[in-house]
Amino acid sequence: MAIRSIRRLLFAVVMILALSAASYAQVAVGVAVSFGPPPLPVYVQPPCPAEGYLWTPGYWAWDPEFGDYYWVPGTWVLAPEVGFFWTPGYWAWSGGNFVFYEGYWGPVVGFYGGINYGFGFFGEGFVGGRWDNGRFFYNRAVTNVSVTNITNVYNNTTVINRTENRVSFNGGNGGVQARPTREQEAAAHERHIPPVAAQTQHIQAARSNPQLRASANNGKPSVAATAKPGAFSGRDVVPAKQAGGSWKPPANRPAPGGNKSGGNKPGSESWRNVQRPGGSPVHPSELPARERPAPQSSGNPKQDQKYQQQQQKLYTKQDQERQKLQQKQEQEHQRLDRQKVDDTRRQQVEQQHQQQTQQLQQKHEQQQQKLQSQQQPRERSNQSKPPKEEKPH
To answer: For residue 57, what are the domain limits?
Structure first.
């Protein structure tokens, strides 16, 4: 009996380690859509703003509140670690619906559906640059890099894929018919980092812009790419030259803004058709973007600067906690799929997810209130001090 107990314990430990090793593998976001995204629009790449920035291609995301796709502009993002590359997310036909697999940072570029995003991401791997002795060298044959500001460049024209393909999803009718290689499957289990805070804020800004919805721009967004995340105005904003092809949503698709309850809608399904509990957010990705208060002056520049630094540190930590919980819940979704559990069990898990998300939201609100309360006494103290009298000359 003791030997059996030890074996069971060892098996449990191995399973935990296996799940932990796969925790940063590319995972499906918990939403399925019955119709595919528009083709990728045609646009040019804005210039790289500075050394160390890597290109992240634009893509179509799904907004369940409006039952519509919206364009997330391509942008340059600072690599979170030396030696890391970006593996783009992609849509794939799975189980009768279109499911989105989120992108990630890692030491190797993994599978991204065979989608030709351009600018070095031509469907397999990445040829837009390479790391060498802690510095990133840019391939000017496929990326827009000025040698005036960045000198670590090279030219390799032999890697350019001339095949023009604007299809934005893998599998299904009309999709890219690509499958991951053994190397790409192995890369999916390397140590990964989810989208950084700047990327999350970039996505939220795109989602809140009505002009980026497919129903408004017909596949030709006015902001197709930006020089930096969230910078949707200025001279480095690039509009789409043209739509990637014709696209029409199904006739039974709900009108934009018609149903904002967050529940099930025609044309979209919550996780595997499970009825979602209540109308409040179930997962961290569905939480509204936080409104950041404008910095206030207390009359003490040093105190103001310290408060702003504390506020930024808190926002970064909270973004990381949101992403961590989102990944944990997505892994639970995948485990339910593998176990093929019934809808009752799925509903119970979704209720747990809703409680976790609400608790996290309340925790973050309390942290923000506490930080603001610490600043208010300083402001009142500075305001109560009488002005210094000038001595007569």
So the answer is: 25-294
Q: Within a domain: residue 169?
A: yes
Q: For residue 275, is pLDDT > 60?
A: no
Question: 308 Cβ partners below 8 Å, 6+ apart?
Answer: 295
Residue 309 is assigned to a structural domain of this protein: no
Q: What is the secondary structure of 316-370 as a DSSP string?
A: HHHHHHHHHHHHHHHHHHHHHHHHT--HHHHHHHHHHHHHHHHHHHHHHHHHHHH
Judge whether 92 and 99 are in contact, CB under 8 Å: yes
Answer whether 71's CB lies under 8 Å from 40's CB. Answer: no
Is the pTM of the predicted complex or chain greater than 0.70? no
Using 50, 70 and 90 to split pLDDT, how confident is the model at 85? very high
- Give the pair of three-digit tokens for residue 148: 């005036």
* pLDDT tens track for 283-301: 787 776 665 565 566 677 7
* Average pLDDT along the chain: 78
Within a domain: residue 58? Answer: yes
β-sheet bridge partners, residue 132:
135
d(CA 214, CA 6): 56
Amino acid letter, 100: F
Torsion of CA 341, 343, 346, 352, to 10 degrees: -140
Give the integer Cα–Cα distance in Å for 181 and 83: 22
Domain membership flag for residue 14: no
Predicted confidence at residue 291, as pLDDT, reads 59
115 CA to centre of own chain? 17
Model confidence band, residue 169 (pLDDT cutoffs 50, 70, 90): very high
Phi, psi of 55 (to 5 degrees): -80, 135
Count up the domains in the chain and report the number.
1
Higher pLDDT, 338 or 242: 242
